[in-house]
Specification:
single chain; Jelly Rolls; Arc Repressor Mutant, subunit A; four-stranded antiparallel beta sheet; 8 helices
């Protein structure tokens, strides 16, 4: 990554000049068809970005976590793609105007480096999603997706090697991410449980044998 801790702190300080906004679990941050209220830094919680398919189903695009910016593409390009954002758990954001965002970057170019890091990470995640869809079977795509989530949201137990995915993933969220039906995804999750590769813990998925899961790919 390009940004130093000082530059990251400067970006956070910029957003802390904005409006603090809190959301309950399930509450919209950006509603369907609504222009973003500004550029938002995620201070606490998890936020899912999704759209609605022509069949009326949610299509999960990405999950944003602490320290990331919501509506970054809109902030940079001004293009509004009608992406919906909602809180997956109690969430806190700081919001500044798009104009303030631009002026701050122009007057203090160093805070652009954390933005470059975020854009690079977005590109990497979307590239991984495209590569994941190249796997021929739903099982392979599911395992690849869970391992990707482990890198992003995982809490690893150094003694056992198990990884807890601390993101409340719904079956439909997983299904849309791997281009499978909810029913097929459910069957494959059940298969991985029977093979003792994953388990459920307090509503989260735990990878019991991540190295063995990697061998399926």
């Amino acid at each position: 990554m390009l940004a130093s801790e000082t530059e990251k702190a400067s970006l956070i300080e910029l957003f802390h000049q904005g409006k603090k906004m809190t959301y309950k679990k399930g509450e919209f941050i950006i509603r369907p068809g609504e222009t973003p209220p500004g550029v938002l830094l995620l201070e606490e919680g998890l936020v899912k970005a999704y759209d609605i398919t022509k069949y009326g189903e949610e299509n999960l695009l990405v999950i944003r976590q602490k320290g990331e910016i919501i509506a970054l593409t809109w902030a940079i390009t001004g293009e509004d793609r009608n992406i919906i954002y909602s809180a997956m758990e109690p969430t806190v954001t700081f919001c500044i105007s798009r104009e303030m965002f631009h002026k701050s970057i122009q007057s203090n170019p160093k805070i652009s480096l954390p933005i470059v890091d975020m854009v690079t990470e977005m590109y990497r995640m979307h590239s991984e999603r495209i590569l994941n869809l190249e796997y021929r079977t739903v099982r392979e795509r599911l395992i690849s997706y869970l391992l990707t989530c482990a890198n992003r949201f995982g809490q690893k137990d150094e003694k056992t090697g198990e990884i807890l995915l601390v993101a409340p993933l719904k079956q439909q969220d997983i299904a849309s991410s791997i281009n499978a039906t909810r029913e097929t995804t459910g069957r494959q999750l059940a298969y991985l449980e029977r093979q003792q590769l994953i388990a459920k813990e307090n509503g989260f998925i735990k990878l019991l044998q991540p190295e063995k899961m990697q061998s399926y790919l």
